[in-house]
Amino acid sequence: MSITKKLALRHLKQNKTRSVLTVLGITISVVMLTVIFTCATSFAHYYGERAINTNGNWHFFVKTDYESAKKYLLSDSSLKDIGFEKDLSTEEQSYKIYSDKANYLRTGTIYQGDAQYIKDTVTCKYDGALPKSDNEIMVEQSLIKNNGLELKIGDEIKIAVGSRLKGDFVILPIKGNYQFGERFEKEKDETFKVVGILHDNEPTERGAIIRGMSDLKSKNLVAYGKLKRITPFSYTKINGIYDKFGFTKKKRAFNVGENTGFLNSRLAFSIDKNNLPQVLKLTAIGIVVFAVIFVSSFAMIYNSFALSVGEQIKYLGMLSSVGATRKQKKKTLYFEGAILGGIGIILGIVLGLLTTFISQSAMNAKIMTIMEGYNNNIKYSTHISLWVICLIVILAALTVFVSIISPVQKAARITAIDAIRKTDEIKRKGKIRTPFIITKLFGFEGDIAFKNLRRNGRKSRTIIACICICAVLFLSCNYFCETFKEA
Asked: What is the pLDDT of residue 435?
């Protein structure tokens, strides 16, 4: 370790109060960064989990046949976990339970797919196992209860399979929840083995039956794919996959789709799929929030180091008197900044995460009431991501470095004579006159205080800037909190 670094460490230990105050300023700024980024990540993670719970664990789907899917999807190294759902014909996609209950309790939709599709589609709790073959099914607990059935795992049940239709002149097939006025046309009876019981599985809607599929050689399939890595340009990648299948823009409306909520939660947006004004509005809010925090952090750290350097004039003058060059003085101050910044960043991240966890746990009930479409199956919790921690460290280190450049440059120019006279700290040009209003309002004490503030120009400006930043932060945080409540 060089002599300048040893002197810097010794000086930090001898001036513990100043060092602690500087670390405190850095810590507060890093806490703000950590809280904002952690809260944003937690909200995004919750909405992503809600999208999976509602739609299923997939990123996009394409209606195709197995040969095309094998050529364009299974061979794509950027994709993983391709699941296949059988695009059932009208005569096979619906069922009717044999019971004496009302029609809306006895009819529903059959969803048939392979093991990967069923694994990605079943997002609720279930008893038993997932179906694998064509004669195995999973049924909703509500379907068993509403029809007064005594079904258990391993039992067999005979079901009428057919079509759900609606309309007199234009007859349309129905899929999903029961619609008033629909009618069921039976095609055949089939016997299935119950291997699992679902408990409110949202992707397959109320009263649905999930059926296994062992043969993938069907011409009518829906392929559900997942990207190995989601980036802001994921929609471009997905559109490139659609182009391989040769879909026109009109055909895409009926043959492809994306899990938009999940992709948005991972910061992947599309001008075609998303509301552009809403995206721009959210982006603008994010930029404003980040700008306020960055500017306030910069000013806070800058002021901390400026006050610190102001108190080190005697020490810097001593270094100059023994022959220290500007470069050596800069290295000394940057070394001090690195030590204080490292301690402040570590403390700021730890305290920021702790503050976020405690506040979100305490306000969890309030958060549930203000979040649109809160899902009780997905609990909101603090989500900590490694890349967010790395981003906070980089931004905090960059903020510390940028903040100390100006104080270091000024301090490096201090000579031994300037340190003795303190010409850079105390400014006086002519006689200082106190305004009449200050003397009238505050008397003799106000007169002395005003002249002292004028003489110590840099310190005065630093203190005033800190007070202004606190006011700006308070008003900004209050505005965004009120806006969030109204939203």
From this structure: 78
